[in-house]
Write a structure and sequence with these properties.
By secondary structure, the chain is mostly helical. 68% of the residues lie in helices and 0% in strands. The protein is built from 15 helices and no strands. Helix 3 packs antiparallel against helix 4 and helix 13 packs antiparallel against helix 14. The longest helix has 17 residues. The protein is globular, with a radius of gyration of 22 Å. The two termini are 15 Å apart.
Amino acid sequence: MTLQSTEFRRPCRTPAVESPRHHVVPAVLLAVLLTAGVVLPARAGRYNPSRKAQKHEITFRSQDPKTFYRALSFILEKQSPDQVMTINARATMAELLFQTENYREAAQIYLQLTEAPLADAYKLSSFQYRLAECYFYMGLYGEAYDQFSRVQTEGHKSLKAEATLGMAMAALAQGNRSSAQAHLDILLLENEYYKSYPRALYPAGIMLFQNEQYDRAITFFEKDLDDPKDLYFAGIAYRRQGQLPKALSYFQRLTQKFPGTVWAQRGSFEVA
């Protein structure tokens, strides 16, 4: 079986940077932000800010983040781009778009934020990292790699390891297995934590699997067999090694534990 890059792209998608300074703001709080901080009274003569905020909140609750983004952009265009409240509002909107998988629109905002004059190094690196993630999920792997590399070399130290993992995944998505392996080896050498970090187990296992290092791949997959992806590829790795009874037991376990999923279907195919 030849594993395509799509095998690891979407399944490992999780928010990568969790910080009290960088998260999604609830709808009510977002409405307060718009009315209290972003719309300046001196510049509100052309429209009614409270009315606009009400429209924004309704739009957000209707699960239409793109329309909300366009409406908020109308307000932000009238504010100074380097104003703190403007930057915070853009960051909130970008995170909302990212979490709802509107990556292109989110990337447009994050690109602007990475060019804003920010004294907070962590916040700037967070924006750069999110931009890299947007590029990755848009399939722009070269741009994603370059942006992850920027964070890894110039960014805040708390995001360097995550950026290294991102570089490895972007390199693998481009078919550059040797580069992906090199980044992975560096990550695991410098950060023991990633040998058991749930979000890193599947990507790490896949990189090793692609390079036919099945023993090492299995050690990562088997650390999280509650994840159907890891269970499936552990079975495939055992089969590649000729350990058919072990592989068969994993495929059967997959169909029993995750019925109705695409992974269960793949497991059934392997058993048949």
